[in-house]
Each structure stands twice: as C-alpha cells, then as structure tokens.
Q: What sequence folds into this?
C-alpha cells in the first residue's frame, strides 16, 4: 500500500490519468437497453459501469405504504459483488442504503409524483463496476431511465463531483484522488434553474474552497446534461426498415 | 399464473402443436449468443457478459484466500451465488435470493463442480490456506432460459479469470500472476416440453407456456441434471434431451472457447 | 406568444416549448408564462397549438377507452381485472346477469379469461369500472407501448382497417397497450404491429406497412401453393 505522502496526484498540471484539473473522464450513455423494465439506461463514466432499470408506476405493496395523493418513488442502489477490488457480499450495506436515500430524495424533487396516486415507482441502480463517483453516474443514468419510462418530470437531473487534491480543486475525482485527496463533493442539479437536489461532502474545505468546488461541480453537471440530452434524442431516432 | 401466460399460452401451445415457434426458430435452434469476456476486468479477476437472445446475464469471478473445507484440506474452494435483479423482470423482487435464484445458482454450480472444471488442487497455497473462487451471477434482463445463459457466462468468466498476485501472505490487488486453472468447459442445455414436443432454449413466452423443462450440463460426460416445472417427462424424452444436450453443448463450447477478450 | 420548437421536433423532459402557448397539460408544466415539456416525445405544432406526443409511458384509465383485460379475481359481486395499469379495475356482476347473488359468476367470466370492455368511469385515484364485456376466445394478446396505440389505429382507424383487410385477422385494439389478434396470418399481423410500434413517430409509415404486408402475404400464398 502506497503511503499517502508518496503519491503525487498532480504533476505539471496533469492528474494521474492525464486529465487537467477541470476535465471530465470519458463518458458514454445509452438509453433503452432492457426489455423487461419500463425504462432503462446504461452509463460508462471512466471505469464506472452502471445499469439502471425503472419498474412502474405499479401497484404498491404492502398497501399501507400507498399514498393516495402521489406515487412513492424508491431508488435502490446496489453494487454487484464483483464490482469492486475486494468482493462485496451481496445485499444492501449501510453505504448503499445512504446512497439510495439521497438519490431517492433528489429524484423525488423532479418527478411529478402526483400524476400517479397510490402507486410505486422503483428505480433499480446496478453498479457493475465501480471506480469513484458512482453516485453521480448513478443518478445521471437514473434520470435518463425515468425519461425512457415516460414518467413525467419537471427537469432531468445531472450530477458531477468535485474534490480537493493536493490543495487544488479538481473536477470528477477518480479512485486514487478519492483515497488520497482532501475532499469529495458530489453534487446533483436540476439543470434548468441549477437547483441543487443532491449535495454531500466529506473532507476538509475552507469556505472559499467549497464555493470553488461546488461551482466547478455544477459546471461539470451542466456538461453532463448536454450529454444526457444527446443520449435521449439519440434513443428516439428510429432505423426505418424499408 | 402470470398475466402474460394468460395472454399468450394458448396461442404458443397451438403453434408448437403445428410445429412452429413464436420467434420462428427451429425446435432445436438456440437464439443468437454473444459473449463478452472481461466486462468488468478493471475490478474483478474474471467476468463475462452473455446475451442469449434478449436474456442478459453478467457473471463476475472474485478470488480471496481462506480456509479449505476440513475434509478436503488440499483443495481450493468454489462457491456460486445468483441474484435475479429487479430491473431484469417486473416480477423479480428486491431482497435476498428466492427459490428461483437459489436453484439457478446451485444448478450452475453443480455443472462446474461435478465436472471438476476448476482445478481446485492447484488452488492450494499452504497449510490451512487456499484460494476461494466466488462465482457471482447477476441477471440483468430476463427473456427466458436464465440457466443456460448463466452457465455459459459462468464458465466464460472462469476461462477469463486471472490469479491475483500473492506475496508474503498478502493478496496484491490489481496485480496478476497467471490464469485461473480451468480444465473443463461444462455447458448447460435446457430443453422445454410443450404439448409433447421438445424445444431447446425456451424464450420467456415459451417458459410461460411450457409443461416442464430439463437442464443437462455436459462435458464429455453428463455432469448435472435438473428437471424443473410441474409437468412430467417420459423416459424416451429424457434420452432425446440428453442427445440434444451433447449436440448443442458442442456447438456452444466452440463459441465459448473462441470468445477471447 | 413564442414557440421554440418546430413541428416534428423531438423534445425531452424540462425542455422549454414556448411562452404563452396552448399545450396539452397532461405532458407539460407551466411556470409563469413559460411552458416546459415533462416527457420525451414528438412535438406537433399547428399554428397556435402545440401538442406533445410522448414516446413512452404506462396506461392510465380514461373514460370511454376500450381496454383488453384479464380476469384476475372473481368476487361475490363482480370481477377484478388486470388492464396493464397500476390501478384497480372492477367489472360489476350486473354486466353478465341481473341475478348477481343467485348466480355463480365464474360461469360467466373466470380467472384467466380475456375480455375487451369499455371504461365507464374513473375516480380521482384512477381506479376504474368497465362495462360491455366481450370474451375473447383463442388468439393471442400482444403487449404494445400504450403511447403507440393511436398510430396502430391510424387516422379514422385507417391503419387498423388496413391490417384487418390485408391479414384477414380479427384484431381488437385496447387503449391500454394490448392488441388481440386471431387468424391464420397472426404472425404477420404481429410483425406489422411491432413495426408500427417501432416506427410510430416517422413519416410514410402507412405505405411501408402496406408494402410489407403485401410482401409477406405474397410469400405465404406462394408457400401454400407449392
């Protein structure tokens, strides 16, 4: 195991993977990839590989969970056992449950839940390969999957994380930067009005550093939003067979 | 019965009686098979993503060092588990594996274990320390015949798997030394019985319409058999299924072996 | 009044459609004088009117819709139906007989029976009642994206009539995304319907479907003549 002090995370303005401080990793998105889910999306973000499927709106069981005024949205973030270096036992752990909660709350802000009283909308997030920034990639893909399911939303949700590495504020931190850096700040926004629907931070930031970081994260999220738009429009194109 | 069964069962059974399948295949024809090895190679020692028709299954192999079974102190350990993820089918529920997931894991496990596909003796490190091989089946889209898709993905992932470096009693994650020793390529073949006809690789609609199914996993021998569903098979039909299994396993084995990363 | 999209554009959730315009409120929201789409779909602009046709979505029962349902429960006073919707759907015993409590309702409709019926009322939580049941015997019911049903019917049912005429199949289309088909050429009808579902939001579809049907049915004729 490398000593924290030995790892040089930024050298000559370039990070370990060659990126500049304000550069995103390579990202691809595809919408409508599953046949037994109401909506679906797949995202590759750096080495992250995440698949999201939406089931619903559907009848909600048990009945006492039903809300006669709106749908109940539940997002479940799950990591495959082989998605990380050391095998993770199947089943929800505390981290997965926390991430599920903040993602559910973020998406509940944009989904027009009142259109579907008494029902449940389930968003299943499967992390197939994880490499830092999974919750941002997950919520980005979840937003696409909900659109693919035809569930009305006031806006999409785009997310990106910023961090502090070797004293510098950088965009979209990767695994080593997460392990050896000084702060991690994932942010998700409803891009139209830049409303922040998810924000978490762990680390050590001054007020100025924090401002710089979240402004950078929002800038990143807006770039993600452009990719989401492209992915959705792409999915609506049809190959005409003569 | 599931709703889809009511909507299509009668029609599919009549089609089969007339010698046809809903997706136009021959009775002994498999759907298109795509195998991608190393799907999650950045994190896991081995992996394979399989698409059998629209059925999509991802299998990952993880390796850890642990204690052997007391009755086999010189052999490594293998263990298989399966998850039917809810995004794969509206009827799959979140939660611990139910009887379908458990049956799936155990049938895939049986084929690999009984054929000695993994050379477990080569996984012995030192006294009380052996490699443990975890086979994790992650079902991502259900369009029928999860067993064959999972079994094919599992053996493909094993063939893909590398051994982590092990130095001074520590596993060095991210560094590799050689491949997982795999000596056999067991392939499961599932045949469904619908109205006294035998069809191979049932799609989901056919699973809703069938009487029963039988999975036979073969190498150059029969290594595992699982009959499932409520209907019954005649002995002659079982003989036919065995022939069908050897036939199809040969074809699929070629595809599995040639699916290099 | 400003319109920011053209007829035939694709839109996504949260996209600004226009200001001070008429839009079908089912699929858009108004904030101040700005109107935004809430779904992904096709936009139709006709002078001052903008209509959003969503690409995907489930079925919410609407009065007077024809739906195809499956009986899932027989109650003493009626039946519970599955209509491919998250909401409860009931059919009252009176739809089959006046003597509801003296009869065995299973004799009329039993669990698993496929029925086409009309939605007579929908309440504020989207539960509904259906009337005028017709049992559909034999055939197959295919699931289709409910948002593509209008295209399968076509303008003044032109597409449905084309399908029926060419394939000579009995076809009943449910607004709830289910289509019942019965006849010898069912596989061809299914193929045509799946094609319409896929290419619903393109131009020239009716001609392509007609060509496809002629081609496939011509092949069947040749096969039968051999």
A:
């Amino acid at each position: 195991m490398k000593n924290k002090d030995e790892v040089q995370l930024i050298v000559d303005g370039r990070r370990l993977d060659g990126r500049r401080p304000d550069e995103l990793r390579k990202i691809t998105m595809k919408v409508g990839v599953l046949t037994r889910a109401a909506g679906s999306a797949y995202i590759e973000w750096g080495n992250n590989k995440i698949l999201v499927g939406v089931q619903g709106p559907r009848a909600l069981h048990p009945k006492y969970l039903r809300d006669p005024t709106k749908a109940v949205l539940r997002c479940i973030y799950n990591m495959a056992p082989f998605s990380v270096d050391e095998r993770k036992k199947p089943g929800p752990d505390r981290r997965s449950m926390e991430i599920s909660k903040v993602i559910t709350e973020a998406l509940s802000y944009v989904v027009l839940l009142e259109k579907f009283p008494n029902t449940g909308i389930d968003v299943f997030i499967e992390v197939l390969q994880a490499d830092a920034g999974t919750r941002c990639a997950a919520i980005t893909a979840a937003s696409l999957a909900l659109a693919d399911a035809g569930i009305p939303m006031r806006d999409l949700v785009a997310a990106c994380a910023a961090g502090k590495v070797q004293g510098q504020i950088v965009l979209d931190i990767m695994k080593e930067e997460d392990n050896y850096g000084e702060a991690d700040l994932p942010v998700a926004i409803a891009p139209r009005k830049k409303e922040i629907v998810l924000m978490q931070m762990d680390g050590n930031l001054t007020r100025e550093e924090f401002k710089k970081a979240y402004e950078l994260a929002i800038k990143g999220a807006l770039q993600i939003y452009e990719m989401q738009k492209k992915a959705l429009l792409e999915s609506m194109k049809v190959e005409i067979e003569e | 019965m599931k709703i889809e069964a009511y909507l299509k069962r009668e029609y599919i059974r009549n089609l089969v009686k007339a010698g046809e399948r809903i997706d136009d295949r021959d009775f002994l024809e498999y759907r298109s098979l795509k195998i991608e090895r190393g799907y999650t190679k950045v994190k896991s020692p081995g992996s394979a993503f399989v698409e059998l028709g629209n059925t999509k299954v991802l299998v990952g192999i993880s390796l850890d060092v642990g204690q052997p079974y007391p009755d086999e102190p010189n052999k490594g350990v293998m263990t298989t588990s399966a998850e039917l993820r809810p995004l794969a089918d509206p009827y799959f529920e979140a939660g611990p594996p139910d009887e379908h997931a458990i049956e799936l894991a155990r049938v895939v496990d049986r084929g690999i274990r009984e054929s000695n596909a993994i050379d477990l003796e080569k996984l012995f490190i030192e006294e009380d320390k052996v490699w443990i091989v975890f086979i994790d089946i992650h079902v991502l889209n259900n369009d029928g015949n999860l067993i064959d898709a999972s079994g094919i993905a599992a053996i493909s992932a094993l063939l893909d798997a590398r051994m982590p470096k092990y130095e001074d009693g520590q596993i060095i994650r991210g560094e590799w030394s050689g491949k997982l020793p795999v000596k056999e390529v067991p392939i499961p073949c599932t045949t469904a019985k619908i109205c006294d006809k035998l069809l191979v690789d049932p799609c989901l609609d056919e699973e809703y319409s069938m009487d029963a199914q039988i999975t036979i996993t073969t190498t150059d021998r029969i290594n595992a058999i699982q009959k499932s569903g409520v209907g019954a098979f005649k002995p002659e039909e079982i003989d036919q299924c065995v022939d069908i299994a050897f036939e199809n396993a040969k074809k699929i084995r070629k595809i599995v072996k040639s699916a290099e990363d | 009044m400003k319109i920011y999209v053209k007829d035939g554009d694709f839109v996504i959730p949260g996209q600004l459609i226009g200001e001070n315009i008429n839009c079908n409120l089912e699929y858009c929201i108004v904030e101040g004088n700005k109107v935004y789409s809430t779904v992904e779909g096709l936009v139709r602009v006709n002078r001052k009117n903008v209509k959003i046709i969503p690409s995907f979505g489930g079925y919410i029962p609407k009065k007077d819709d024809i739906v195809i349902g499956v009986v899932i429960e027989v109650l003493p006073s009626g039946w519970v139906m599955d209509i491919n919707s998250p909401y409860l759907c009931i059919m009252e015993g009176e739809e089959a007989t006046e003597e509801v409590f003296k009869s065995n309702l299973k004799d009329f409709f039993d669990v698993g029976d496929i029925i086409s019926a009309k939605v007579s009322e929908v309440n504020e939580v989207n539960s509904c009642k259906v009337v005028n049941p017709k049992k559909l015997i034999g055939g197959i019911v295919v699931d289709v994206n409910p948002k593509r049903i209008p295209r399968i019917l076509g303008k003044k049912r032109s597409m449905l009539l084309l399908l029926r005429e060419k394939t000579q199949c009995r076809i009943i289309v449910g607004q709830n995304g289910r289509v019942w088909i019965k006849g010898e050429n069912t596989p061809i009808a299914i193929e045509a319907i799946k094609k319409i579902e896929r290419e619903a939001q393109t131009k020239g579809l009716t001609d392509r479907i007609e060509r496809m049907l002629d081609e496939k049915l011509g092949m069947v004729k040749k096969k039968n003549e051999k």
Q: What stands out?
A: The radius of gyration of chain C is 21 Å. Chain C has four helices and 16 strands.
